[in-house]
Request: fold
Amino acid sequence: MVKHGRNKKRRAGRIGRTQLKNRNFTRWDPKPKITDETVKTLWDTTKTPKQNLALMGLNTDMNAVHRNRMGPSSTTTDAAGNNKKPNMIELFDVPDSDALNVTKRLPLQPDEQEYILECMKKYNTNYRKMFRDTKTNNLQHTVDKLQKMGSRFLLLERQDLRVALDDIPTSIQEQMPALKNYGKNSKDDASQDDESK
Reply:
């Protein structure tokens, strides 16, 4: 027996279609189940919950407190009934919380400092040559990236350096504002120590 287009009809949804009836929703109950007797006596089923709570003296919009506090006319009344503008100290007199332990982020991470120092030892500030040398620039940073790293390294403060000061060549130390006098001071200190002996 031939099934004339039965599969096509089944895919189209004409045969064996099941209708799922969604009867599991709950309807809105106009008479809520209130267990407290005082609330039950004050509750009016013809009004909205917001109106009912307002009749009881409760606030349903918690953001209204903040909006009213910083409203356009932020004036207060003193004991005599005069309107006066609030003092800024009164408005924002919030005690400080505990001190936050925020660690200062370095402009260059220690591994980046070592990386750019190795490149600068070989090529000083010629970033194009650094870019072409794949042995020292094994991460193959672009010229712009190397220039950014180099300028950040040159601008590092002495406390931010994570490489040994003796590893930095004098030609690079002369370009660093934080270390310009480092080589001279160490030589002067050594000569003063020799003179004192």
